[in-house]
């Protein structure tokens, strides 16, 4: 007559499997977390608030009614290799009403969407922002 294995053997086998899985020795290896990409440019030491303040000043100087400027969605980006401020601005137009939100990019040069040919802001925005 064959001897039946008892409940104690089953518990021991399950305990060993749990330990093996917990130790990472069983099954597939877990992928390593992705490393944070290193910046491609050296930081210039200029804080973001200073960059955004300068960008607002530059943009306002280009508007018909600088006092009416309402900024939104501003961020500093170094996607193009050099830090720039990307954002939107709305201000009063020549008729006294708000002209609608438009994008701007400000760095070494400041450009408003209304001053660029069709499609140029999209290309610059995709590259730099």
Commentary on this structure:
With 129 residues, the chain is an alpha+beta fold. The protein has a domain at 48-128. Helix content is 29%, strand content 18%. The chain has a four-stranded antiparallel beta sheet with strand order 1-2-3-4, with helices on both faces. The N and C termini lie far apart (79 Å). 11% of the residues are buried. Mean pLDDT is 77; it is low at 7-28 and 36-42.
Notable features of this structure?
alpha+beta; four-stranded antiparallel beta sheet; 3 helices
> What's the arrangement of strands in the largest beta sheet?
1-2-3-4
Taken as a percent bin, the fraction of beta residues is 15-25%
The helicity comes to 25-40%
Counting helices, strands and paired strands, the structural category is: alpha+beta
Question: What is the rounded distance between the termini?
Answer: 79 Å
Which sequence of SSEs, written as H and E, runs from N to C?
A: HHEEEEH
Q: What is the rounded Rg?
A: 29 Å
Q: Count of helices?
A: 3
Mean pLDDT: 77
Q: How would the global form be characterised?
A: globular
Largest sheet composition: 4 strands, antiparallel
Question: How many DSSP-defined strands?
Answer: 4
Low-pLDDT windows of residues: 7-28, 36-42
């Amino acid at each position: 007559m064959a001897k039946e294995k008892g409940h104690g053997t089953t518990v021991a086998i399950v305990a060993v499997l749990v330990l093996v899985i917990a130790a990472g020795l069983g099954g597939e290896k877990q992928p390593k977390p992705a490393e944070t990409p290193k910046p491609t440019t050296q930081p210039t030491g200029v804080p973001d608030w200073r960059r955004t303040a300068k960008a607002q000043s530059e943009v306002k100087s280009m508007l018909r009614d600088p006092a009416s400027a309402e900024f939104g969605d501003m961020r500093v980006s170094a996607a193009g290799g050099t830090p720039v401020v990307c954002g939107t601005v709305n201000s009063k137009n020549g008729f006294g009403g708000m002209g609608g939100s438009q994008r701007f990019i400000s760095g070494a040069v400041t450009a408003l969407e209304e001053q660029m040919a069709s499609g140029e802001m999209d290309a610059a925005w995709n590259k730099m922002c």
